[in-house]
Amino acid sequence: MSNESATEVDAVQTQLQTLQDALESGTYTQVRRMISGMPSPDVAHLLESSPPRARGILWKLIEPEDRSEVLQDLADDVRAYFLNRMDTEELLAATDGLDTDDLVDVLQQLPDAVIREVLDSMDTQDRQRVEAALSYPEDTAGGLMNTDTITVRPDITLDVLFRYLRRQKHIPEMTDSLLVVNRKDEFIGLVPLTRLLVSDPANTVREIMNTDAITIHAMQPESEVAQLFERHDLVSAPVIDESGRLLGRITIDDVVDVIIEEADHSIMGKVGLDEEADIFAPVIHTARRRAVWLGINLFTAFIAAAVIGLFQDTIDKVVALAVLMPIVASMGGIAGSQTLTLVVRGMALGHVGDSNMRWLLNREVVVGFLNGLLWALVVSGAAVLWFDDLVIGGVIAAALVINLVVAAAAGAALPLLLRRMDIDAALAGGVVLTTITDVVGFFSFLGLATIFYA
Fold it and tell me: Which of 124, 183, 205, 366 is most buried (CB neighbours < 10 A)?
């Protein structure tokens, strides 16, 4: 962590401690004054960093007109915590003034009856925009887009366009281009503001617009949208439907959120946790979420234990097997996890697919074999010196090679297989891989030992 980042973290923690002390002492006026001058993302961060009791008090101290901005910056679980405690009147006030994409994020966490009340409170144009965004899944471009755009026709002059822009009350945030549509609202190009500002006012929009602009289909997964923004250094991009009709646009701030969510998902998914999990959630809620994953892991552990049980007689004869067999399983688990992480990341970036999977699988098998040979020599040498038994050295060497090759193959193939089955590889891949490496490691090591020591 850089010195600047560390200083910022320390400042936030100091601020949080000051607020906590003020809350405990009951000086709520001081707390209200402190948070009233803070940007909404900082207030949201403080809410997320506070236990439930302090969180509830802080929310009440936020000015009602500021709550909508704070609400949109909260993580899903924390946002749901407050939404579930609001009545309809409070919800209407909290959602007033939100951008379409932020409002959709909030509405997707509400019951259908409440959504309808919020929609009925809007004017016709805003309601149609929100309903259009709600019709698309949350993890697609349609669910991510903002319908607040400025559109122009290609046949008007830039002088007319300038007069039109001056009449607007405001320009949507993150506007780097104006979107050009025909009379059927079909997208035909865009005009970058940088080009608009230096062009002759007598020119028409058609003469300066870019017709090769990158467009995003409404049903495109948000992960692919993030890849397009990263690859082409986009600030915003238009979203269209099947017929080419303009629906809205996606901006870089929303894409950054997607990238952060995917990174969190990869980290948290390995241990079965939701990337939006509230760190200060109630005990029962947290325990229930974790219990499911612990149960799955317990089941896989019983499978590995059952394999060990098949060779109980051999273990009883040669006690050294019980000492050494965790090494085989552990080495396979690490080797498989390396490959699994590499492939899952490659798939997330769009680098790995059916076309190059065979090459990658072959490469990983060869890498697993070479590493297996290297560490088999090291471990077998240590085992022979430790137990003064050449047979056990040969057995563990062979088992290591077998398990590292299988682990590499499984780590490479599992993500693609799981994706075809519509199973999240980041979430389930680790558990399946651990089961495979444990079972293969124990079976190969103990099975070979049974043959040679029978």
Answer: 205
